[in-house]
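Page 42, continued from yesterday. The earlier attempt failed because a stray header line got pasted into the input along with the sequence. Redoing it now with the clean sequence only.
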Amino acid sequence: MATVSKRNNQTAKERNRDAPITPLRRLVIPRPDILHTYLDYRQINQYLEYLAQRYPHFVRMHNLGHTHEKREVRALEINWMNSDNVELSPQMREQSPRPFDLAANGRSTLPVVHQGEHSRKTVFIEAGTHAREWITISTALNCIYQLTERYTRNIEVLRKLRFIIVPLVNPDGYEYSRTKNAKWRKNRRPHKSSKFVGTDCNRNYDIFWNSGPSKINRNTYKGECPFSEPETRAMRNMLNRMSSNLLFFLSLHSYGQSIMYPWGYCRENPQYWRELSSLANSGRSAIKSYNGREYRTGSISCLTKRTIAGSVVDYVYGVLKVPMALVMELPSRELGFQPPVEMISQIGHESWYGIREMCKRSYDLRHQIVRENEPQLPRPAHYDPSNEGGATESLTMSVEESTAAAGGDCARTKPKKKRTKRTALATHDEILRIQRGFKASEPSVLPEGIQALPAGLFPRQLEPRIAPVRRSGLSRDGRGAGDGVILTSRGKPPISSTMPLGVFL
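This time it went through. Structure tokens are written below.
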């Protein structure tokens, strides 16, 4: 009886302490369908978290920074050869570097910077810089899918290379494109003292950023200064940290169906353009052998027929001296920036065949490209160091002009066409007077027998110096009587009968 009374008097805290400890259940993150639909920002992060939980021994997620609307820019690191990978032999685990470094806050992690023989073995892939190019994000997720969920089929490339993939650089613009305006290209940071929103993140990197004008109302506005956008600063911090380890950088865009190498800011070719062309052609051949689709290859400025300053590829290749850097424009014009969902899987798989082949080829070329002793970067044609950008030059534009190309964020009104002043045409008498003056000032010596052409007359208007040729034969009436002039089908003398050939020579 005393024992029962003692048990009833136990506090809840004591009862919980005496209870048996049950292990915590692992939170299961559902897997989104990345192959057959366009995911939103939340689903993309959910897929990255799913992979980091399912493959913790070689997959890790990193937060690069936050956007203007407080969304995270995330990267996924796929590092097979690390000391925590339980699928490696004990000897290989001892020889492999550690998987990550702790950040300054002690909570988040950073990719480790390898030294010695493990350096220059990292492939960096980024996508979703332009908000409306949805297919690039799905293709980057397909690359992640191939290297994680199908890693046994790609173990050869995983043993040689480490991958850092940023599937969505511009999450703010992407969500705005999905919900408000499918043609939106820029990010969503508003500009002070202006009603315009957004900067083209692929014009905001610090490589000859000052070359060429840029208007705040355009889709290609380059920003107030280099790295003025939180997205490009987040990318810069990661790229600068990993620059000594990067072997191959790939930027995914659409829809040019081409694989391009630097330079974009000028017309000249880099020193190792032959190696870069070989790298691009390896991807082109792999895609063509897979399903017959033909990509174009060449420099950015050559294939686009214009110069593009401040791009991430030029920055990585020109400033950070990464051995190889390419832009891959996915197909195709008839499909647009957002191909039908039925095409997502096909484009993703065919692109992966080309990307995987380029990764293998970059590993083979790693000893042939030495960037340390390169000459100084070529300057663009219109580079002006004193020009700090065109942020203010376009603020005085009319409302009709400025809203036309604002990417759909402002009122959709048609711009007024500017009327260009045309000079009045000279009269016929003035033309003749100019021609006579020209002939008088520059007398020409013609060969003997060749007639000079008077001003204002065509060869057929000349008086014939030789009588028309008459030959015996049928006349026009067909009766065979008399001689007749040789006539053409239009009833006119042939040119040869009225003018020497020397006038044309």
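Notes: The longest strand covers residues 246-254.
Reminder to self: strip header lines before submitting.
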